[in-house]
Amino acid sequence: MQAAAWGGMAEGHSVLAILPIFHGFGLGVCVNAAFMAGGKSILVPMFSAEIVAKLLRTKRPNLLVGVPTLYEALARAPSLSKADLSCLRATFSGADTLPRPVKERFEKLVAERGSRVKLLEGYGLTEAVTAIMAMPLTEYREGSIGIPFPDMLAKICRVGTEEALAPGEEGEICVSGPAVMLGYLDDPEATRATLRVHADGRTWLHTGDLGKMDADGFFYFTVRLKRMIKSSGFNVYPAQIEAVLYQHPLIAEACVVGVPDLAQMERVHAFVVLKDLAQANPDTETQLIEHCRARLIKWSCPREIEFRAELPKTRVGKIDYKVLVQEHTAQHDNQGYAG
Prior knowledge:
The radius of gyration is 20 Å and the shape is globular. The longest helix is centred in the first third of the chain and has 13 residues, at about 25-35. By secondary structure, it is of the alpha/beta class. It has nine helices and 17 strands. Helices cover about 25% and strands about 25% of the residues. It folds into three domains: about 1-135, 3-Layer(aba) Sandwich (Rossmann fold), CATH 3.40.50.980; about 150-220, Luciferase, domain 3, CATH 2.30.38; about 230-335, 2-Layer Sandwich (GMP Synthetase, Chain A, domain 3). One of its GO terms (molecular function) is CoA-ligase activity. This is Long-chain-fatty-acid--CoA ligase. Keywords: Ligase, Membrane, Transmembrane, Transmembrane helix. Pfam families: AMP-binding, AMP-binding_C.
């Protein structure tokens, strides 16, 4: 009900269910929320930009919820360049960091096609079943994932502790409320590590996500703790580097990971898909690295860029960075640490 109210859904409205409904995000937001509001859920048989573009034209949904890669693909879909998109009342991106260039390209498309909708961010995780916070339709703060839904609580704690931090300080996002899971099936140790009773007597879910909260209570996601790259003692955030890569006109998709390095512990390795695959060559690699060096500190710049025809995706449609790390590791297994 909260997701429906947040998205302004009412009787007669429809949501395009792009996300798989075996996933909490897809089931909770794209199906249950629509039905609770008396609306309609339009099921997408298979994820592809072509199918989604066709359904946008023919079924004219009012609410669109997806991952950043979907919005990037839609912004580049030729079939939408002349479509009437005035039906869209709200669009939300979740499950991964939304690069600013992707947001801008999608908003430019819908503005040209008759809608004033803004692409806003939300936040949720499997352990809390569905979306638990989002940017209000009437607000926008650069990079913010919004504020918690009315019956959910959130705070920032010092990593590894239950100590709440002041606004502006970076720590682990913790949430509490009815959406939080009861625990992991047959894994009491993991449950104890993730669900902790704090001094206020509430059970808090330690998400494993780094973020901040501003003075007005708006939250900002930084990075999954497991994705943080440690390079020469510095914390390096993949999403920051990916956002810079997306600013380059040659880039269609990008994913940044940390790989072992004898001198730096980890170094930054970028996987990219170019809009024109024929430009995948050493000169382009140099150009992209120089693009990053002009905008990032030394430790955050990719040491190498690996061109791919496509990047692996999870079933939700996110770029699967874990598969890329596994593939890189397998490829370099016989070499040990790179120098």
